[in-house]
């Protein structure tokens, strides 16, 4: 389902990013398993809240920021201007290259995607990871039905659960963070 944010929504997200960037987004980026040289995918990058911190951790690597919305992707370009290790991709199905990423992460993205679309998105996400690659998800804890579906689809696509934790996010409540490794 295609959806473009209003200017107000982008503006308010920027304010939250300025106020909570370190505690919410940097904390998540700091937990990503990065050594500095990985090929990384930010699926549903929005305005680049996590990407802003993740890109700094990739001095020899590369970050692909992907979103279904042109407006969010443009906002992301603005947040990340000055970085050289980033490319931007507008999401279209069947576009991710097979086994090209070491790490992919989705931060507050999958719970918003309808079930029928998740059945296409998750196999593509899984297919875009190298063997041994890592998928990290963070989704609102109260989205229990969506979380069950996501877990089922992820496991059906050769991804093995490695770790999970619940984190408390200011103003957003509890979130579930899961780490999977591709067989
Ligand atoms: C709640 S925002 C989260 C943005 C960012 N990850 C963050 O945490 O600030 C969800 C994002 O997912 C994007 N999105 C939704 N469905 C998508 C899809 N099928 N493929 C790629 N991006 C999608 C939206 O356009 C939006 O930018």
UniProtKB/TrEMBL annotation:
GO BP annotation list: methylation
Alphabetical list of InterPro entries matching this protein: Methyltransf_25, SAM-dependent_MTases_sf
Domain Methyltransferase: 40-133
Keywords: Methyltransferase, Transferase
Domain of life: Bacteria
UniProt-recorded Gene Ontology molecular function terms: methyltransferase activity
Gene3D superfamilies (alphabetical): Vaccinia Virus protein VP39
Cited Pfam families: Methyltransf_25
Signal peptide positions on this chain: none
Name of the protein: Methyltransferase domain-containing protein
């Amino acid at each position: 389902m295609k959806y473009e944010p209003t200017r107000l929504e982008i503006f308010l997200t920027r304010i939250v990013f300025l106020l909570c960037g370190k505690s919410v987004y940097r904390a998540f980026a700091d937990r990503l398993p990065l050594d500095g040289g990985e090929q990384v995918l930010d699926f549903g990058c929005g305005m680049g809240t996590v990407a802003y911190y993740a890109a700094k951790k990739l001095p020899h690597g590369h970050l692909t920021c992907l979103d279904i919305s042109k407006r969010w992707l443009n906002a992301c370009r603005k947040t990340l201007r000055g970085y050289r290790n980033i490319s931007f991709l507008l999401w279209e199905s069947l576009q991710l290259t097979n086994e090209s990423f070491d790490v992919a992460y989705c931060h507050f993205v999958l719970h918003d995607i309808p079930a029928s679309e998740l059945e296409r998105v998750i196999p593509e996400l899984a297919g875009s990871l190298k063997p041994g690659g890592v998928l990290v998800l963070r989704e609102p804890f109260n989205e229990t039905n969506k979380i069950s579906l996501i877990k089922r689809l992820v496991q059906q696509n050769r991804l093995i659960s490695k770790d999970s934790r619940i984190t408390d996010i200011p103003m957003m409540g509890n979130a579930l963070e899961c780490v999977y490794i591709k067989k």
